[in-house]
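Need residues for this backbone.
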């Protein structure tokens, strides 16, 4: 098949293929304890409510601190603009936390695999969609801000072997899509990109790739409304393959 006829599905990893919020909480809490002392004990529910704010490891420090300040608070309604201001004012602190977070993740993954993988799991309904998705697209790839090795090992544990564009390549999803196009010899218009964060869709849309929001991932009702307002389809996992099949005629070149 010529490259002009190919269709490529690009999936984010955390919040699309994999539910890793439990692992993120355990790693972040352990790093926080090592750096600052033991945080409040019952923070996981608040942490989960703030997961949608996070893009990279340093952001987990901010979510933990917000959860500690108000363990019963609903971070699903926290101001994104205010969070971005915290990222700026606490940039050095977040950077230090990020380094320790990723180092602990790597150490736990490599030395305590069974424990590490027990904190996380793939989305079962997404796995059920993989066969029809792979029949629909010529290639399925992963675009993620996770490190490539962790994503690869986790995919393998679920019986999947996919090309991965990870954080070592770029943190900007638009740059990952550019690399995907170069390596696979396709144009952005031949790609459908799915992420659970609207800001990542905003990074990719200028490339010309079609984009959709994963409703089952780490986002809020307000973010899903924002996606719709910006013209992104909000996708449900149980009907993903069928919905994409309906969109491909309009949004991607057809091999027919």
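Answer:
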């Amino acid at each position: 098949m010529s490259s002009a006829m190919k269709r490529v599905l690009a999936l984010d990893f955390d919040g699309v293929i994999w539910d890793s919020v439990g692992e993120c909480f355990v790693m972040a809490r352990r790093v926080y304890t090592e750096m600052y002392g033991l945080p409040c004990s019952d923070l996981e529910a608040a942490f989960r409510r703030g997961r949608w704010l996070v893009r990279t490891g340093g952001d987990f420090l901010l979510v933990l601190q917000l959860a500690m300040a108000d363990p019963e608070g609903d971070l699903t309604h926290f101001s994104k603009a205010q969070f971005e201001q915290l990222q700026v004012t606490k940039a050095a602190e977040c950077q230090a936390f990020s380094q320790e977070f990723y180092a602990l993740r790597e150490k736990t993954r490599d030395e305590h695999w069974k424990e590490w993988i027990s904190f996380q799991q793939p989305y079962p309904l997404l796995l059920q969609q993989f066969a029809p998705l792979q029949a629909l697209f010529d290639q399925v790839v992963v675009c993620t801000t996770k490190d490539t090795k962790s994503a690869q090992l986790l995919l393998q544990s679920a019986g999947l072997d996919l090309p991965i564009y990870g954080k070592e390549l770029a943190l900007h999803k638009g740059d990952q899509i550019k690399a995907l196009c170069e390596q696979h010899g396709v144009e952005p218009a031949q790609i459908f990109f799915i992420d659970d964060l609207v800001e990542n869709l905003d990074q990719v849309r200028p490339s010309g790739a079609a984009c959709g929001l994963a409703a089952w991932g780490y986002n809020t009702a307000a973010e899903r409304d924002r996606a719709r307002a910006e013209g992104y389809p909000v996708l449900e996992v149980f009907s993903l393959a069928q919905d994409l099949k309906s969109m491909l005629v309009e949004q991607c070149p057809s091999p027919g």
